[in-house]
Design brief:
By secondary structure, the protein is α/β, with parallel strands linked by helices. It contains 10 helices and 13 strands. The strands form 2 sheets. Strands 9-8-10-11-7-12-13 form a 7-stranded mixed β-sheet, sandwiched between helices. The chain has a 6-stranded antiparallel β-sheet with strand order 3-2-1-6-5-4. The longest helix is centred in the first third of the chain and has 19 residues.
């Protein structure tokens, strides 16, 4: 190994260590005409970490592309890859995405820590929301969907629900993901591999032959994956998946746009969860807790959940043209309540999810 290679490896380790220590969820390489800006996304906001020469940045990008299984020689097309890294003695899954730009490649690395297993109570400071999530654990078949934009906490909620279900029913959980985001020894996890011609459809057929109780499909992104999720729930399994949609009602509209008949949704859909992550503070002390405050260990962000289930879900699926106000608690309702309680700063409540 020559000195240049050692230098790139050391720089990549240092970058990952700095990002992880600062609690970053993403590392951004932003190519510019003269240099490359490195930014970290921390609690939803971007902060500048460093400025590298274009040469230094490209060497680092090539290094990460190689480690994550991307084609180093391909710079004209977007690519994605994944790898598992050990950072500060913790296992962290890294999801990587490149985009071609006129100034060189842009790279984003998402950090997904593997070590901490959360409970449903850890997901939100709103007790009503965690009770609503817990009530969905009573279903042994049907379809549960989690929606929200990128970075809204869908993956964390999905794995927390799966883990809680697996422990509660001692169920066989089989996942089909692209890629696997969190390793869990209690699950059987499969990864879609388009290069090897192993698609969601192929994986779904294999799963049903493997005697599952609970099936997780990483993301409903097109008509094929939507049909797979519904078909699995129609066969008597409990199916969990995620959808990119802005609200619970928009999630249903998205499925209908993907060709799922409303009748099938009435037969299978048992719950829709729309989620956001918002910054919070101590309602007693403000941004910084006193040493003796009982809230001093609270997280910096919390989940805000809109849960559509039971009669409100049935009414929405039955009365598609109704313009009544929703009779379930929306994300906006929780934001207003959080501000009134002092958990959510008024100037941050409209911040990035």
């Amino acid at each position: 190994m020559n000195d240049m290679t050692k230098e790139v490896e050391a720089k990549s380790r240092e970058l990952l260590k700095d990002a992880y220590s600062l609690g970053a969820s993403d590392i951004h390489f932003i190519p510019r005409k003269e240099d490359t800006l490195i930014e970290l996304r921390i609690n939803g906001y971007l902060y500048q970490l460093a400025i590298l020469s274009r040469y230094q940045a490209q060497r680092l990008i090539n290094h990460f592309k190689f480690l994550s299984g991307m084609d180093i020689g391909e710079r004209r097309l977007p690519q994605s890859g994944a790898m598992l890294a050990l950072i500060n003695h913790d296992a962290v899954s890294l999801r990587m995405s490149t985009l071609p730009t006129p100034n060189s490649e842009s790279l984003v690395i998402r950090l997904l820590p593997q070590r901490k297993e959360l409970t449903i109570d850890d997901l939100s400071v709103f007790e009503e929301a965690t009770q609503g999530l817990s009530s969905l654990l009573n279903y042994e078949n049907g379809l549960i969907l989690i929606s929200g934009p990128t970075g809204s906490g869908k993956t964390t909620t999905l794995y927390t629900l799966l883990s809680s279900l697996q422990k509660r029913y001692n169920s066989r959980v089989i996942t089909l993901e692209d890629p696997i985001e969190k390793q869990n020894d209690a699950f059987i996890q499969m990864e879609v591999n388009e290069r090897a011609d192993f698609t969601y459809a192929d994986g779904f057929k294999a799963i049903l032959r493997h005697d599952p109780d609970i099936v997780m499909i990483g993301e409903i992104r097109d008509e094929e994956t939507a049909q797979i999720a519904v078909r699995a729930s129609l066969t008597g399994h409990l199916v969990l998946s995620t959808v990119h949609a802005s609200s619970a009602s928009m999630t249903i509209r998205r499925l209908i746009e993907l060709g799922i008949p409303r009748f099938d949704l009435k037969e299978t859909l048992v719950g829709v969860i729309a989620e956001r992550l918002v910054s919070i503070q101590c309602p007693v002390c403000g941004p910084v807790c006193r040493p003796d405050c009982e809230n001093r260990h609270h997280p910096k962000r919390t989940g805000v959940f809109e849960i559509l289930a039971g009669m409100p879900l049935h009414d929405l699926l039955t009365n598609s043209h109704s313009h009544r106000q929703p009779d379930y608690k929306t994300i906006e309702d929780y934001l207003q309540e959080g501000m009134a309680m002092g958990w959510i700063p008024r100037d941050l409540s409209r911040g990035r999810d």
